[in-house]
Each structure stands twice: as C-alpha cells, then as structure tokens.
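My current task is to audit a protein record that another person submitted. I have pasted the whole thing underneath without changing anything:
***
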Amino acid sequence: MLKEVIFFLTNTDIYSPAMITLLVTVGMLVGFVNTLAGMATALSYALFMAMGMPINVANGTTRVGVLAQFAVSSVLFKKQGLLDTKLAIKVGIPIAIGSLIGAQFAALVNPSIMEVIMGLMLPVMAVLLIRNHKRKSTNDIHTVESSNNKLGVVKLSAFVLIGAYGGFTHAGVGILIIFGSFYLLGLDLLRSNGIKQFAVVMYTPIALAVFIWHGQINWPVAIIYAIGNVTGAVIASLVAVKWGVRFVNYTIATAVCIMSFWLIYKQFI
C-alpha cells in the first residue's frame, strides 16, 4: 500500500485533478489545525518529501501557504477582537529578526543534518502541545489580558530565538509563539493565538525571501497548496470548534512523533 502511495505522489502530474484535490484537501486540514493550534505544518513537510522534494525545498514551498493562511486568519482574529495589533508588532519584530538567521541556516545546511535536527526537535514540540491542554486556562476566552506587555532584554531575546527556530522550520513555531505570549506576556491562550497569527505574517516574508533567493520553492505545488491553507484558515477562524481542538492536537502530536522517527531512521537505511 505504501509503495502505491509513494508511486502516486512521485509520478502523478501536479495539474491532474487527483493531485490538485489531494493538495487542496491536505492544505485545508493543515490550515485548519494551524489556525486553531499548531504543528500541522509537519504534515506539509511529510507530503512534499513523499512527493520527492528535498527537505529544504519542502521547507521553502510550505512557506507560501503559511503566509497566505496567516494573513487571512490575522484579519479574522482582529475582527473578533482577539488580536492586539500593537502588541503583536512588538512581538513580531524580534521574531522577524531571528527568522532571517534561521532561514539562512536552513537554506544552506545539508538536508540530512536538517532532517536529524527536525527529528530531534519535533517530539519536544509534540510534548509541549499535549501539556498545553493540561492547563486549566487553555480554552478560557474570558481570562483577562495582562498589562505586562513591556518587552525587556530577556523577553526580546526569547522571541528572537523563537524567530530563529521559525525561520529554520515552521513546524511547531506557532506553539512556541503561543507559549511565549502566554508565559512572558501573561495573555490567555486564545489571545496568544491571535499574537501568533500576526507574528507569523511578519516573519514569514523574510524567511520566504531567503528560500526564493536560493531557488528552494516548488511554485506550482506551493500555489495549489496555499488555496487549501487559506480555506482551512477561514473555516477555523470563523467556527469555534473548541471541543475538537484537543483531539486534533493529539492526532497531530502522534503524526509528528511518527515523522520524527522516520527522519532519524532514514539516516541509517
């Protein structure tokens, strides 16, 4: 079965109805989950790599959909009163600076090294994702916003590091931004998610430009996939599906751990 799937992904024309349907459908799922929580971009990497892309090209290709998706979701979060734009800009600037460093490293590093690093990092993100739901305030929309919004050296440095990770790989960076906003700024997790939407919009063009410069984007796949990303983001932003978020996150965490195992295992086969 697996061989048949790989054969289909590597030999089917990008513009065929079957491939377009697959890319848009998976893109919708990723856009939906990323807007509500995070981590789903790992599925993008898995799909693109199964299609035969090197991991650095898969990394660059997924950024097109990420930018489109979060641009739309930021507008929708703002309309719902869940995005403090001024605070998001303060957070987004150090993240954008860090992303330039991370993206440059990702574009130049040996793909095998990047696979190992991602294989080690992703399980940590999965654990953070699961622990996120053990906190009492996870879905508390009524939690008051913190007045602790000043960014000192420590907080700025933390967000620069988060940006460096985001420039390196988008998989899991949303969780880091949410946690940074939650723990460092004292926001509830829903408004932290709003900060995430806008911060991603700020740093992704910088990372995307690096991948464009190095010719590491498959544009036909990126554009088709982005249609699904945006559709999923719109659905997730407009529909409050709180009861389903936990299940989806556990599912993605499981998929991420499987992908992590594969990235490490394939170095030895």
User: Anything to note?
Assistant: The chain has one domain: 18-268. The first helix runs from residue 2 to 11. Residues 136-147 have pLDDT under 50 and may be disordered. The CA atoms of residues 3 and 95 lie 40 Å apart.
